[in-house]
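Why does residue order matter? Because the sequence determines the fold. Keep that principle in mind as you read this record.
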Amino acid sequence: METCSLLPKSPSQALQITTRNKFAWKGVVPKNIGPWIEAYFEKAVKSSDSSRRVSRRDILRFHSFMLKEVGNDLCRNWSPRLTKLFLDFLRTQGASATGRRLTDRTINRIISHLKPFANWLDNLKQIKGLEIFDPFPLGNPMSDFTPNKT
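Structure:
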C-alpha cells in the first residue's frame, strides 16, 4: 500500500494518506476550494456531528457565494476583498429567503467557522511536498477579519 503526505491534521503535523483514500490525489493537488472543503472536514475537524454540520453549512454558504460572485472556486481567487464582499452580503441579504436580516451573532458564527478553514488551507504550503501549492497569493483572506462584539 502506497502512502503520501498530503493533508495536515494541524499545521505542524502531516498525515499519512493511503492512495485508496479519496484525498490522495496521486500527485495532482487541487486548485479549487471544493475538494479542500471535503478534506478539511475529513482530516482536520474533530468536533461533534452537530457542530460539524453547522460548520459545513457555513463554509458551503461561502463556497456558493464565491461561485456566484467570481464564477469559479479557485483558491487564488479567494481574496480579502471577496471576504469583505461576503460579509457585506451577509449583513444585507444573507437570509433573503426568510425576509429577515442575519443577526450579528449568526454572522460572527459564520466567520468563526470560515477563518479556521482559511488558516488550515493557507498552512498547507508548509507541508513537505506541497511547497509549490500557495492557495492565497495575496495572503490569507481571513487574516484581517475578526468577529464583532455582540
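The two ends are 51 Å apart (CA to CA).
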